[in-house]
Structure to design on (753 residues):
């Protein structure tokens, strides 16, 4: 090694260090706008909701403090406990049903087949509809007398899908799946496209068929996409509201009253904003804990590329 | 669905409308569906009174009346509307602010009780003392809905909507049945229709409030209006009384007889499910507010014209309630805020609510006003026989019970709806229902 090349290396190192400092440590000033917005529109309302949860307020007269009344009522409220379990159940069902379908669809859509673009475009239509439109649509399609169940009595019996807890949960899960699978399929399509072709070529030379390639290359390579997608599903599942509002209104009875819907009911239907705020706070705490757990378990925080040589 | 009449009957259905409105807006790509026409100017402007109304097709009449008022009055009235679906929650947010109107639309009873409690509303008794016509020109059973703690807080301002038993004449004829006069007739009809493989009674159970109508009538027929009034005024033992137990037993008998089929909890009135059952001959009866008629007229015009029958709710032998009692939506009301600067102008405006012009205009858009002079103009209505039937029913009714979910304050709506639904689908028994009703807060 010559002296010249040594000098060149050391110069490069110094430059790299200087550049590195400049890139990784931007001034705090750059974060001010985002921080201010976050404080103003996320933290401040959260604090106000926390304060409101210790008051009794009908939205008309001024709120007055009632100590722990809302909280003791909430702790002894079977509907609240049930609503948390229902929310978790719907979230888990959402992840379990949507993930396999969207992986298969996404990987398929990433391929080079003919008609792929046209069919993919059709699959993505539900994504373009608002949750409200989707719910109203399915509400009409599932009418027990004039909808699909009325035509297929051998499958649906008397068609009383929304008249039982199991039936309502099945409908909510199905409609959620119909609505959100396209979004996740889109994520998986992107992920599958990014898998280097060399891996498949090497596997093909080794004699691996399509199925083995899928399980040994595609799936492991999609790990990070999967984590992203599952976190989106969990967050979406915990805040499920619009489909419940339109499809079941929390019914029959209180059988599908999930936490977000219960909060809306207390606040905006019964005008008891104190109780509604307490539920909201519980929801925030539960959702935060679950998100933290998911991030910790999946290693989302230290996500790094798994592609060979990158 | 937009065929529902101008006065939407329940909070539940109002929320439903919110959903539909939102859907329509989103589907059409109109993102600013709501809040475009709320009241923005302060009502303290010198020389104006603001009139806030539920925004819908019925506003043409309100506009006409405001114009008439402004022709002669120095203080000018300004009509503000809030699109229907959001009315109650938006009213709630502005009512104690400087943006609050002078006069506002409401449903009487529980819908204004919280405002009365917060001392925001002006009792109209001194206006009535000056002009007794403000009370005497209205049917008493209707006027009383907006009387709270002995003081009058509202003047009826649209149409009445009693609950009637509708039937499909053709289905009844082909089964050789007639409209039931008594509860026993109804049970017999149910049995006969069931044997023919029909759903005897269409019920939009998923909406919950149609189920409630059955409780309202059966309780009134069995116990009279006093039981509910006692319960509403705080005597919770009323729910556990023998009459209450008897009424629940009768309802249970009807449900167990298969009167409503087995999938009523998946059927809605608001999306056209239960009206279609009646119109297509899959069911023989439906208990519904008077708006069933206009719903059928727009959805199934031939059926409405030829085969839609209507009658009063059957009598119950041995019941304490007067067989002429009705339940439903008595009317909508104008209430006045205490802070109004122009009480005299307000009084003059309210006087128009029993004018001939008002009655004719309301009849013209299909509403049935509840003034004493309405009888003179019934022939001019769009469907005179139907209007006449309803008007006589309401006029002769010793008691017109406001729907329970509107007689109680808003906080009770969901618990009531849950209780009636769980009783109908067998999740709770009579004791469970009684407990649920006893745990309602009535203030």
């Amino acid at each position: 090694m010559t002296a010249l090349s040594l000098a060149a290396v050391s110069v490069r190192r110094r430059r790299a260090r200087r550049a590195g400092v400049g890139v990784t440590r931007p001034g705090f000033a750059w974060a001010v706008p985002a921080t201010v917005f976050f404080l103003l529109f996320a933290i401040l309302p959260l604090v106000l909701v926390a304060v409101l949860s210790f008051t009794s307020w009908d939205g008309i007269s001024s709120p007055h403090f009632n100590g722990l009344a809302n909280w003791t009522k909430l702790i002894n409220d079977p509907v609240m406990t049930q609503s948390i379990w229902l929310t978790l159940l719907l979230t888990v069902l959402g992840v379990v049903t949507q993930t396999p379908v969207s992986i298969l669809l996404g990987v398929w859509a990433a391929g080079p087949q003919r008609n792929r673009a046209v069919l993919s475009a059709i699959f993505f239509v539900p994504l373009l509809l608002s949750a409200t439109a989707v719910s109203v649509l399915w509400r009409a399609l599932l009418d027990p007398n004039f909808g699909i169940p009325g035509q297929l009595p051998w499958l649906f019996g008397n068609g009383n899908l929304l008249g039982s807890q199991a039936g309502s949960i099945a409908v909510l899960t199905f409609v959620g799946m119909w609505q959100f699978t396209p979004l996740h399929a889109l994520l998986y399509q992107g992920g599958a496209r990014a898998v280097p072709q060399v891996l498949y070529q090497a596997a093909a030379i080794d004699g691996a068929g399509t199925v083995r390639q899928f399980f040994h290359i595609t799936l492991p390579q999609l790990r990070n996409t999967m984590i992203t997608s599952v976190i989106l599903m969990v967050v979406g599942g915990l805040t499920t509201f619009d489909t419940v509002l339109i499809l079941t209104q929390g019914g029959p009875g209180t059988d599908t009253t999930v936490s977000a819907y219960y909060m809306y009911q207390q606040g905006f239907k019964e005008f008891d904003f104190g109780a509604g705020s307490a539920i909201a706070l519980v929801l925030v705490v539960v959702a935060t804990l679950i998100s933290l757990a998911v991030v910790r378990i999946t290693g989302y925080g230290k996500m790094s590329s798994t592609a060979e040589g990158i | 669905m937009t065929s529902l009449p101008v006065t939407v009957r329940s909070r539940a259905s109002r929320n439903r409308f919110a959903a539909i409105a939102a859907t329509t807006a989103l589907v059409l790509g109109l993102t600013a569906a709501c809040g475009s026409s709320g009241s923005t100017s302060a009502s303290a402007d010198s020389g104006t009174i603001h009139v806030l109304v539920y925004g819908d097709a019925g506003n043409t009449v309100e506009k006409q009346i405001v114009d008439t008022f402004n022709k002669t009055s120095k203080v000018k009235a300004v009509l503000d509307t809030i699109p229907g679906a959001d009315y109650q929650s938006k009213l709630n947010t502005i009512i104690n602010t400087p943006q609050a109107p002078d006069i506002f639309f409401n449903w009487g009873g529980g819908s204004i009780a919280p405002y009365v409690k917060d001392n925001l509303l002006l009792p109209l008794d001194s206006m009535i003392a000056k002009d007794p016509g403000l009370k005497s020109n209205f049917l008493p059973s209707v006027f009383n809905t907006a009387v709270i703690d002995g003081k009058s807080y509202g003047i009826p301002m649209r149409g009445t909507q009693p609950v009637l038993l509708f039937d499909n004449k053709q289905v009844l004829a082909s089964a050789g049945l007639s409209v039931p006069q008594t509860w026993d007739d109804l049970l017999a009809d149910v049995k006969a229709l069931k044997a023919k493989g029909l759903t005897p009674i269409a019920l939009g159970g998923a909406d919950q409030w149609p189920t409630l109508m059955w409780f309202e009538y059966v309780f009134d027929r069995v116990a009279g209006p006093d039981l509910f009034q006692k319960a509403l005024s705080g005597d919770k033992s009323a729910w556990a009384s023998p009459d209450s137990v008897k009424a629940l037993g009768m309802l249970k008998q009807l449900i167990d007889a298969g009167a409503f089929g087995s999938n009523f909890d998946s059927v809605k009135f608001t999306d056209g499910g239960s009206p279609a059952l009646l119109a297509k001959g899959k069911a023989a009866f439906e208990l519904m507010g008077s708006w069933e008629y206009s719903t059928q007229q727009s959805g199934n015009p031939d059926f409405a014209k030829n085969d839609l029958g209507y009658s009063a709710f059957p009598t119950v032998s041995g019941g304490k309630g007067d067989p002429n009692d009705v339940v439903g939506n008595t009317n909508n009301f104008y209430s006045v805020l205490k802070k109004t600067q122009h009480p005299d102008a307000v009084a003059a405006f309210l006087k128009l609510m029993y004018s001939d012009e008002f009655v004719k205009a309301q009849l013209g858009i299909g509403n049935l006003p509840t003034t004493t002079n309405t009888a003179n103009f019934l022939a001019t209505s769009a469907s005179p026989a139907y209007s006449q039937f309803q008007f006589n029913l309401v006029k002769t009714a010793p008691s017109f019970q406001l729907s329970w979910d509107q007689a109680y304050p808003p906080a009770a709506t969901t618990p009531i709806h849950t209780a009636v639904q769980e009783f109908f689908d067998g999740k709770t028994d009579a004791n469970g229902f009684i407990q649920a009703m006893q745990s309602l807060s009535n203030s």
Observations:
- The beta strands of chain A are 55-56, 64-65.
- Chain A has 16 helices and two strands.
